[in-house]
Amino acid sequence: MTASPPPGSLQGQRLLLCVGGGIAAYKALELVRRLRDAGAVVQVAMTEGAQQFVTPLSFQALSGQPVRTSLWDSAAEAAMGHIELARWADRILVAPATADLLARLSHGFANDLVTTLCLATTAPITVAPAMNHRMWLHPATQANIATLRERGVQIIGPEDGPLAEGESGPGRLSEPEQIVAALGSAAAVPPTHAGELAGLKVVVSAGPTYEDLDPVRYLGNRSSGKMGFAVAASAARRGAEVVLVAGPVQLPTPSGVKRIDVRSAAQMREAVFGAFPADIYIGAAAVADYSPRVSVQNKIKKTGETLTLDLVRTPDILAEVAAQTQGLKLVVGFAAETENVAHYARGKLQAKRLDMIVANQVGIAGGGFESDQNAMTAYWNGGERDFSTAPKTQLADALMDLIVERMNA
C-alpha cells in the first residue's frame, strides 16, 4: 500500500491579486489572509473603483507588501514598475472581477494598472467574477467569459445566492476558501500533465439523485457533488473532452466541461448512456438505491401515525456501465460507507466488476458529504492507495494522477 501526499500547494508562489471595483472587494481582504496561510507571497493591485470600497492600507497591512493603485505612480514607475510586477507574478488572480473589468480584459484594454498588468504578463490568469445576476447572464458578459476561457483563463464562480442589492441569482463572488482551493487545484497539474488526456472522452456523474414522492417531497441524500465536479475539472485541465452528468446541486460548471443536469436515477442513467461512447467513466454520483413505485400527482396528506412507502430498486448505473462493451478503457466507482469501509468497497469492486473503486467514510466530522475536504482510499485488483485528508479539489487531482497511471498500466 502506498500513500499519496495531497498536491496543489501554493507554498512559495508569487501571487498578484488584482482587486476590481465591486462591493465584493471586502472579501478580497479575507482572500489575502487565506492565500498567505496557503503559503503564497501576495502583492495587491487595485482599480480606482476598488479603492472606493476598501482602502489600499488595509491590503498593505494584510499582505505585508506595498499596494499598487496607479500607472502614474512616479516612484514605482521610475523603473517601469508595472512591467516588473507583471514579470514577478507566478499567477495573477482578479477578484472580484466586475462585468466592466471582464469586458476590458476580454478586449485587451490597457487603460489602467490592472488591465495593463494582465496584458503585460505571461503568467496564468484566474478571474473570480462578481456582479448582479442580470449583468452576469447578459450575452455580452457571457461572450466575454467565453473569450477569456478560450485564451486559457481560469474562471472561478460566480456562485448562486443572495446579492448585495437584495436580489438573488448567479453573481456572488466565490468564498475565499473556494478560490484558494481552486488555485491550488490548478497548481497541482504541472505542464507535463496538461495534455495527457487529450483525445480522450471522460464521462463523470456527480451529486445526489432525488426520487419524487409527490409534488412536495422526495427521497434524497446529502451528496454535494463537490468531489465529482472537482474530478471533472481536473480531467478537463488535462485535455480531455468531459461530460458531467450532475444531480440537483448548486455548483458552478467547471471550465471546459459539458454539463447535463438531471434529477432522478432514471434520468441520470439515460444521460450517462447517452454520453457514450467514451474512454473513461467515473461514477462519483450518490445514486438512490430505491425509488417510489408511484409518484403521486397531489400532496400526500397526513392521515395516520405511520406511513408505508412502496419502494422499488433503481437501475444500478455503475454495474451496467461496467458490463457494457463500448470501448471504455477504465470504469471507476465511488463508495460512501459508515463502517467496514475496506470490506464493503472491495465487495463492490468485485461484484460490479469495476477497474477501480474509491471509498471514503461518511458521517464523520470534517469529511464526507457536504464537506470541502475528505480522505479516501482507492482499491483495484491487486492494489490500493490511501489519500490523506485534503481539499476535494486537491484529492481530485491526485485521483486523476492514479487513473492515468492505472489506464496505462
Give a brief outline of the structure.
Helix content is 32%, strand content 24%. It has 409 residues and is α/β, with parallel strands linked by helices.
Please characterize this protein's 3D structure.
This protein is α/β, with parallel strands linked by helices. The protein has two domains: 2-187, 3-Layer(aba) Sandwich (Rossmann fold), CATH 3.40.50; 192-297 and 307-407, Rossmann fold. It is 32% helix and 24% strand. The protein has 13 helices and 20 strands. The protein has helices at 25-37, 56-63, 81-88, 99-106, 113-120, 133-137, 139-150, 176-187, 226-237, 265-274, 317-323, 341-351, 392-407; strands at residues 2-4, 14-19, 41-46, 91-97, 125-129, 154-155, 159-162, 168-172, 201-206, 211-212, 218-219, 241-246, 257-261, 280-283, 290-292, 311-313, 330-337, 356-361, 373-380, 383-391. A nine-stranded mixed sheet has the order 1-20-19-18-17-14-9-12-13, sandwiched between helices. Strands 3-2-4-5-6 form a five-stranded parallel sheet, with helices on both faces. β2 (14-19), α1 and β3 form a beta-alpha-beta unit. Residues 1-8 have low confidence and may be disordered. InterPro entries: CoaB-like_sf, CoaBC, DNA/pantothenate-metab_flavo_C, Flavin_trans-like, Flavoprotein. Residues 197-405 form the DNA/pantothenate metabolism flavoprotein C-terminal domain. This is Coenzyme A biosynthesis bifunctional protein CoaBC. It holds the Pfam family Flavoprotein.
